[in-house]
Specification:
The protein is α+β, with helices and mostly antiparallel strands. It has one domain. It contains 2 helices and 5 strands; from the N terminus they run αβαββββ. The protein has a 5-stranded antiparallel sheet. The N and C termini lie far apart (55 Å).
């Protein structure tokens, strides 16, 4: 006999049921959303901080700069988190935080590009 995923009572009814009641089903999905929301909020916080750092370094009218990696490290930029990645025609990897992109070079230099918002 199958047992409920939440309260572990025996399930009566269809063979594919996984919850004994609507209450258990709602509780399970509420907990799932709650845990997911917490993770998403933490990641968005890091992405927004990274975006703010790039925006502060960039200024208003510049489209491309190259800086030392230590500058971003001093701002506590988190290189692990980005919104997406792309390879250019030469196979070099660009990491993005929304409309900013950066490419790391072997000499600890980082090129940062700003793309217009579409």
């Amino acid at each position: 006999m199958k047992k409920c995923k939440v309260c572990h009572k025996e399930i009566v009814g269809r063979r594919d049921k996984i919850f004994c009641s609507v209450k258990c089903k709602n509780y399970y999905h509420h907990q799932l959303r709650k845990n997911n929301d917490k993770a998403v909020k933490e990641i968005n916080k890091i992405l927004n901080r990274n975006y703010g750092i790039l925006f502060e370094i960039f200024g208003s009218n510049i489209r491309q700069i190259t800086i030392d990696r230590t500058i971003l490290e001093n701002y506590k930029f988190n290189f692990t988190y980005h919104t997406h990645c792309r390879y250019n025609s030469k196979g070099k990897l660009y990491r993005y935080v929304y409309n900013f992109a950066w490419m790391e070079f072997s000499n600890d230099k980082i090129m940062i590009l700003k793309f217009p918002k579409s």
